């Protein structure tokens, strides 16, 4: 925005994470996590700087292994509402909370809310990434301004319902030898809105070779991979078979996300690839694999319309079940192999390990 130095680090703290998620995470951890090579002076300064997060009486910083976090509220304090997660439910609740009545604390591994219905459009450049991400500080301004309200870039690991505490640890990123900083937050009211995770059904190779489409960084990786394959496929001397593999985009899962992404990808191929990558335009194509019917939970008329539109756009529809995913191809239960250059996995969601670990009543689906 034309600023420089410290002003950027402070004013654009939330926005920088969307553009540079890796460095944002690493820098944040470096500011809040002691490393093994720290001197005693550095550790004491770090602990002293974080001591304001506790409302309980604490011993001197030098006597603590780490700060205890946010202690219980006092009788004259506002009740503290702790929200775990920054998705649709958590953000809608925080937006409606009155900061004059409550201290609001949000714990989430991302500092923004993602408008997931438009996430597929960012993969092909129809929309920019900032268009689908809204910083938490804009949704609930008190998070970054009120004395007793905070946002912590961290994961929740344990909920202690007897002591009204949430155990958390900071988000780490990359391969740096940084240990997560662990802390606790006492709550008066707790909202668990940490969301779900992509379902892989235990299929070998999915997590290693497929890309999900649930976060901004997933969309960034899909766009990077797609453009990289377009460039690589134009290299002289590349075998025809390898060129077709690189430019074969496979989507597994015929739900709303898979169908939307397949449609966006086919539109991108017709509009942009045929105009800008004329040398390889005849090699790129999209395959959508679904075990049953696509959009099976929707009305038949809408489902038939989607099938007609996708087919007309050049998307190949395959009914099958994936048995194994390898670096360059996936294997269906009938033994057939499907080579791919880009594999997007969108077969629905299930409860996260954190939600599964909670000793609370749950619905049959794990909610």
TrEMBL record:
<feature type="domain" description="FAD/NAD(P)-binding">
    <location>
        <begin position="80"/>
        <end position="363"/>
    </location>
</feature>
<dbReference type="GO" id="GO:0005743">
    <property type="term" value="C:mitochondrial inner membrane"/>
</dbReference>
<dbReference type="GO" id="GO:0005777">
    <property type="term" value="C:peroxisome"/>
</dbReference>
<keyword id="KW-0285">Flavoprotein</keyword>
<dbReference type="InterPro" id="IPR023753">
    <property type="entry name" value="FAD/NAD-binding_dom"/>
</dbReference>
<keyword id="KW-0520">NAD</keyword>
<protein>
    <recommendedName>
        <fullName>FAD/NAD(P)-binding domain-containing protein</fullName>
    </recommendedName>
</protein>
<comment type="similarity">
    <text>Belongs to the NADH dehydrogenase family.</text>
</comment>
<dbReference type="InterPro" id="IPR045024">
    <property type="entry name" value="NDH-2"/>
</dbReference>
<feature type="region of interest" description="Disordered">
    <location>
        <begin position="55"/>
        <end position="77"/>
    </location>
</feature>
<dbReference type="Pfam" id="PF07992">
    <property type="entry name" value="Pyr_redox_2"/>
</dbReference>
<keyword id="KW-0274">FAD</keyword>
<dbReference type="InterPro" id="IPR036188">
    <property type="entry name" value="FAD/NAD-bd_sf"/>
</dbReference>
<keyword id="KW-0560">Oxidoreductase</keyword>
<keyword id="KW-0472">Membrane</keyword>
<feature type="compositionally biased region" description="Low complexity">
    <location>
        <begin position="56"/>
        <end position="68"/>
    </location>
</feature>
<keyword id="KW-0999">Mitochondrion inner membrane</keyword>
<dbReference type="GO" id="GO:0003954">
    <property type="term" value="F:NADH dehydrogenase activity"/>
</dbReference>
<keyword id="KW-0576">Peroxisome</keyword>
<keyword id="KW-0496">Mitochondrion</keyword>
